[in-house]
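> example.struct
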């Protein structure tokens, strides 16, 4: 039954919206967190995967919650060890949902490890932070050990994605794809606006400092790592960047907040800008998406045609449907 098959994705999609709210609450304030949750509930990328009977809705939710819990515990806003355990539990869901969930998790762990070393060097002033980060790293190491056999098997045995060698698509184009498709699309006006907001969001996060700066660094590291690993795949897809959807949503909100701070009607500026973004996403992307009868070419119809028109055993060539999903120049 399609309803029951898609229900878990919808549930995790709703969990991702709440997770984005909790995440942005650690980075800014409740007002911006509400704006982020609102945008995440209407942006094309998360909505698309919340309707698909696949793992990416789970990946997005787990990335949001594991990061939010980690930032909450590391910053001291939650002193209970249970928050660190919650981060590890969501990280466990993340790494078992998709390989690129592990890549995002590894990037988060790498940046956390660097912060832990820096806190140790600070001596007494950084002792409390070092203890909190150490607990996170210990729990995350346990998560990593449970998934290590799966990761090693993928690297050394699973060649379905990598047997064809490096992709001919330049890495810069692979990295550009999620920026375009998580913001305003890859047509020139939308692409320029996407890059401007993406870079402004990074700048605003860095200037804000604290957890916002940390998340921006984690996002950039994971973005580069996933892009490089994706370049080894035969099947290019923006869905591989799904763990970064909550981070990119924050960067969008950070950029909008930066602009709203420079508008005279400041209290109303951020909701107004967010409303404009929502209208663009609904009008340009969601309405056409809900109008689709099929996500891609129907395999059942193709199989029927082959069975009716070709003798059994006749070889044929069929291009992968991945080419129709999330690669450049395909606009659903």
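> example.seq
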């Amino acid at each position: 039954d399609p309803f029951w098959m898609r229900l878990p994705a919808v549930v995790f999609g709703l969990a991702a919206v709440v997770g984005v709210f909790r995440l942005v609450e650690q980075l800014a304030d409740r007002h911006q967190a509400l704006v982020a949750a609102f945008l995440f509930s209407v942006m094309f990328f998360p909505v698309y995967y919340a309707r698909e009977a696949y793992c990416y809705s789970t990946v997005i939710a787990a990335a949001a919650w594991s990061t939010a819990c980690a930032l909450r515990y590391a910053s001291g806003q939650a002193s209970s060890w249970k928050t660190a355990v919650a981060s590890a539990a969501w990280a466990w869901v993340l790494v078992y949902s998709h390989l690129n969930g592990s890549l995002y998790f590894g990037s988060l762990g790498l940046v956390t490890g660097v912060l832990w070393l820096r806190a140790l060097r600070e001596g007494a002033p950084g002792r409390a932070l070092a203890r909190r980060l150490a607990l996170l790293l210990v729990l995350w190491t346990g998560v990593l050990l449970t998934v290590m056999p799966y990761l090693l098997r993928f690297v050394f045995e699973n060649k379905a994605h990598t047997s064809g060698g490096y992709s001919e698509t330049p890495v810069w184009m692979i990295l550009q794809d999620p920026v375009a498709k998580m913001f305003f699309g890859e047509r020139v006006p939308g692409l320029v606006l996407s890059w401007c907001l993406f870079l402004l969001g990074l700048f605003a996060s860095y200037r804000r400092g604290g957890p916002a700066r940390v998340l921006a660094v984690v996002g950039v590291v994971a973005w580069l790592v996933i892009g490089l690993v994706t370049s080894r795949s035969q099947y290019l897809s923006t869905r591989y960047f799904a763990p970064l959807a909550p981070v990119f949503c924050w960067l969008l909100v950070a950029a909008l907040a930066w602009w709203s701070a420079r508008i005279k009607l400041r209290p109303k500026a951020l909701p107004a800008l967010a409303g404009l973004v929502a209208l663009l996403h609904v009008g340009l992307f969601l309405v056409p998406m809900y109008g689709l009868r099929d996500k891609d070419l129907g395999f059942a119809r193709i199989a029927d045609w082959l069975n009716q028109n070709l003798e059994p055993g006749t070889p044929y060539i069929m291009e992968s449907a991945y080419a129709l999903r999330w690669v450049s120049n395909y606009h659903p």
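> remarks
Residues 91 and 196 are 31 Å apart (CA to CA).
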